[in-house]
Design goal:
It contains three helices and 19 strands. The chain is mainly β.
């Protein structure tokens, strides 16, 4: 699915008279975008926790890499921190770096540090403003099977895959499927709590260019309820556009970053009195399971 932006200019010509129609493109001031979805494979000792920052643009402009003053990840329980640095030669990309106390090796975070029950805080300093996002580790469940179905949803060239997984028992769970090609599907266990759930997903052949023999990676990620709601809104607004749901949608979908520059107590902050004091993007710590699948004819 793609964005379809159409600006229709109707020219009415009658008796040497022209009416000009002005179209308001709602050119909002640029905002910082922080893509801090950290995918965690709990079977690995180290986790790649690279974070991307960029700057939104006007209606027709391109999204550009951004530069920030500071980026830091902190565990609330014990106050331990992971500082970040720019990646040389990769504008807008930031990676963890080692200090004498940070749980970092080879610019990756020690996985065990990320998967406990603590709250985690991500601090971003941009143009002398301090932004903060809060989250906790979201567990996921392995994919039981992926098989290919018989047909397409609207086009016979579309490819159907049938995915099955078993929900984690005795707790309320939210998941995010990543089907590649910047296509995502949020789901919750309201109707399949503790059971195996099977569903079909259809790849649009025209949008994705998918063809027989292609190998695709399908992932399931854990999500908090807030991240589930955010992705629902983002996928709906983006309609799975060319740049994916982590880019700027037509209508602004707010993530979990708030401006806390002048707030003394981070446990009681909000931006009710400053509704425009926010940046875009989301911070999530999501357990991930991935399986590969080859498209058959």
């Amino acid at each position: 699915m793609k964005y379809l932006f159409s600006i229709i200019i109707l020219l009415f010509i009658a008796t040497s008279c022209e009416d000009v129609v002005d179209v308001d493109l709602n050119n909002e001031a640029p905002r910082l975008i922080v893509d801090a979805l950290i995918r965690i494979d709990t079977t690995q000792n180290l986790t790649d926790a690279t974070i991307k920052v960029s700057l939104s643009s006007s209606f027709f402009g391109a999204i550009e890499p951004a530069s920030i003053e500071n980026l830091e990840l902190r565990k609330e329980d014990d106050g331990s921190t992971v500082p970040y640095e720019p990646i040389p030669g990769s504008p807008g990309m930031y990676r963890p770096f080692s200090t004498t106390t940070s749980p970092v090796s080879d610019n990756k975070i020690v996985t065990n540090w990320l998967v406990d029950d603590s709250e985690f805080l991500l601090y971003v300093t941009y143009q002398d403003q301090l932004y903060l996002a809060r989250t906790s580790f979201a567990p996921s469940s392995p994919i039981d099977s992926v098989t290919q179905g018989d047909g397409g949803l609207f086009d016979e060239d579309d490819k159907e895959v049938i995915v099955a997984f078993t929900d984690i028992e005795a707790q309320e769970n939210y998941y995010l499927f990543d089907f590649g090609f910047n296509e995502f599907l949020p789901t919750e266990d309201r109707f399949y709590e503790g059971q195996q759930f099977e569903f079909s997903y259809f790849y649009d052949a025209e949008d994705t260019g998918i063809a027989t023999g292609d190998e695709v990676n399908i992932s399931i990620l854990g999500a908090t309820e807030d991240f589930f709601n955010y992705m629902n809104g983002l996928v709906e607004q983006s309609q799975q556009g060319d740049n994916g749901p982590f880019q700027t949608p037509t209508a602004t979908v707010r993530g979990n970053f708030l401006n806390v520059t002048d707030i003394d107590n981070i446990d009681q902050f909000d931006n009710v009195n400053r509704p425009d004091a926010f940046i875009l993007g989301y911070f999530s710590l999501s357990q991930e399971f991935t399986t590969s699948f080859v498209i058959e004819e």
